[in-house]
């Protein structure tokens, strides 16, 4: 599914639509997100169009009958209670409060997940599968550099501890950086290590480093 292509099959269109609804199976969701991160403009454009539709599902009726696969997914979506957030994988002791519209966590009850050989440690606090963004704590080892990446949506970074170099500027504790959709972050690093609170899109994709 979703090899290099110039046209989309009906099955691929169904997958993109289900992804826009937030009801795609987890394995397919991961595969499709990996495909998007490779920079497929065809799928990215189709997803944007589908999202314009799904954002207004409650205001209009479809002009044609959806496939059986889409119908089944829509029925599952209607039958289930919409979640406050994705809390899968969170230890029970980290959840201080969870009620409709409110989620409170104690992050020191969560384990760090190591990436890139321990250069980065992450605690994912919140994942919004419908809008495709997540909020996370990132602890960065001294001397580490972030891979160059393009933002699929707004990214916000708040420096809690340490230093963060963004381009030619250095942020310290209390520093804040906002990057708009479509922008590219290059040369983001830390000299002495840092702790960050980051809100970013799940669809950001890596860019080749400039030589």
Can you summarize this structure?
By secondary structure, this protein is α+β, with helices and mostly antiparallel strands.
Describe the structure.
A hairpin with a 2-residue loop joins strand 8 (164-166) and strand 9 (169-171). It is globular and about 55 Å long. It has 211 residues and is α+β, with helices and mostly antiparallel strands. Helix content is 24%, strand content 30%. The model is unreliable at 58-63 and 81-86 (pLDDT under 50). Helix 1 packs across helix 3 and helix 1 (10-21) runs parallel beside helix 4. The strands form four sheets. Strands 3-4-5-13-7-10 form a six-stranded antiparallel β-sheet, with no helix packed on it. A three-stranded antiparallel β-sheet has the order 11-6-14, with no helix packed on it. It has helices spanning 10-21, 26-37, 41-54, 68-79, and strands at residues 95-99, 102-105, 113-115, 120-128, 133-140, 149-150, 155-162, 164-166, 169-171, 176-179, 184-185, 188-189, 194-201, 205-206. The chain has four helices and 14 strands.
Q: If strands are numbered along the chain, what order do they take across the biggest sheet? A: 3-4-5-13-7-10
Helices and strands: which structural class?
Answer: alpha+beta
Describe the sheet with the most strands. Answer: 6 strands, antiparallel
Strand content: 25-35%
Give, in order, the helices and strands. Answer: HHHHEEEEEEEEEEEEEE
Helix proportion: 10-25%
Low-confidence stretches: 58-63, 81-86
- Calculate Rg over CA atoms: 19 Å
Distance between the termini: 33 Å
The gross shape turns out to be globular
Q: Roughly what is the average pLDDT, rounded to an integer?
A: 80
Q: Treating each run of at least 4 consecutive H or I residues as one helix, how many helices?
A: 4
Number of strands: 14
């Amino acid at each position: 599914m979703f090899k290099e292509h110039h046209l989309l099959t009906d099955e691929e269109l169904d997958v993109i639509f289900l992804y826009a609804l937030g009801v795609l199976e987890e394995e397919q969701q991961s595969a499709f997100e990996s495909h998007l991160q490779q920079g497929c403009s065809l799928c990215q454009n189709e997803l944007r169009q589908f999202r314009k539709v799904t954002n207004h599902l409650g205001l209009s009726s479809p002009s044609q009958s959806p496939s059986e696969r889409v119908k089944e997914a829509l029925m599952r979506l209607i039958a289930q209670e919409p979640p406050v957030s994705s809390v899968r994988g969170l230890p029970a002791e980290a959840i201080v409060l969870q009620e409709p519209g409110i989620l409170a966590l104690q992050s020191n009850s969560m384990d760090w997940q190591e990436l890139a050989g321990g250069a980065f440690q992450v605690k994912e606090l919140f994942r919004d599968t419908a809008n495709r963004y997540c909020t996370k704590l990132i602890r960065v080892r001294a001397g580490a550099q972030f891979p160059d990446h393009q933002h699929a949506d707004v990214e916000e970074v708040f420096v809690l501890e340490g230093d963060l170099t963004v381009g030619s500027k250095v942020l310290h504790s209390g520093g804040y950086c906002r990057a708009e959709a479509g922008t590219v972050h290059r040369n983001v690093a830390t000299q002495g290590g840092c702790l960050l609170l980051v809100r970013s899109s799940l669809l950001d994709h890596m860019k080749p480093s400039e030589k």
